[in-house]
Amino acid sequence: MSASFAPRRLLVLSVTVVAAAAALAGCGSSSSAKPGTITVVATTTQLGDVVREIGGSAVDVHQILQPNTDPHDYEPRPRDIQRTADAKLVVTSGDGLDHWIGEVVKNAGGSPTVLDAGQGRPITRPGEDGEGTDPHWWHDPRNIEYAIGRIRDALAKADPGKTAEIDRNATTYLSEVKAMDAGIAKCFARVPVAERKLVTDHDAFGYFAARYGIDVVGAVIPSQTTQAQPSAGDLARLVATIRREHVRAIFPETSINPKLAQAIARETGATADHELYGDTLGPAGSAGDTYIKMEQANANAMVEGFTGGRQRCAPAAS
Q1: Which end of the chain has the least Cβ crowding within 10 Å, N or C?
Q2: Dist. CA 172–CA 129, nearest whole Å
Q3: What domains are defined for the chain?
Q4: Interstrand relation of 89-92 and 113-116 (parallel, antiparallel or unpaired)
Q5: What predicted TM-score, i.e. pTM, was given to this entire model?
Q6: CA–CA separation, 254 vs 272, rounded Å?
Q7: Residues 89, 54: contact at Cβ < 8 Å?
């Protein structure tokens, strides 16, 4: 599979957004942030959740991407420009996933600190330097543990008076992420290695698979961006691979139309009943509306799919 990450088009700011940026630069912005808080812009749903967990009442977070939206296909809105102009801190995911944030910051005209939360992370994958970067680093919880420290330090620097609260929250959240990671590992340890064969909508789970000993057999979209398009030859090879490897389940993703994955499942005799959260958290009230719940839901979906429903994964109760 190709490991390239190539956005379909360069970011082009709309006339509306440019006008909004100009108005902010000329007249100033009326901040809607909560008084006395650290104003933060987070690009992705995952980072929005992590910043809120660490910052607690000390932060007011504007999350640019919304649940079940595709980060590869985002265009800025006037409100994003306004909130970025007001921000003390902008937290990004990096590796091209939120490449558009540079233009948002530039056009907002403010002077926030910009933090790439995953930069320098301890866990990388082959080809991560330059061509072949995999932007889905958060699917290995050890990288989120690392990002917690970076975000904690950036928030404390933004407002030293709130350091004690931020440190307490970060310590608590770090222990919760570690417990989640250990619980998921126990779940997969109970699944025979030969049954851990993963086929997803796009190549977003390399980090998750490497962490928990899962064999990534293929993806409907053979790329780490959803903006690629599979060819007829790609699909034929995937069908042949699924049959040869006796893959039991194909896993659609919540932010991608599942019809193609379902069609391949029908053709191969696999199921397509278990959705994964790949690039985004789910909406409020869903099984994946926080980072921890998202990864637990992904683990449960995979365990059920790999075992034909014989096993489930409930890491929190492990």
Answers
A1: C
A2: 33
A3: 15-180 (3.40.50.1980), 192-313 (3.40.50.1980)
A4: parallel
A5: 0.86
A6: 12
A7: no
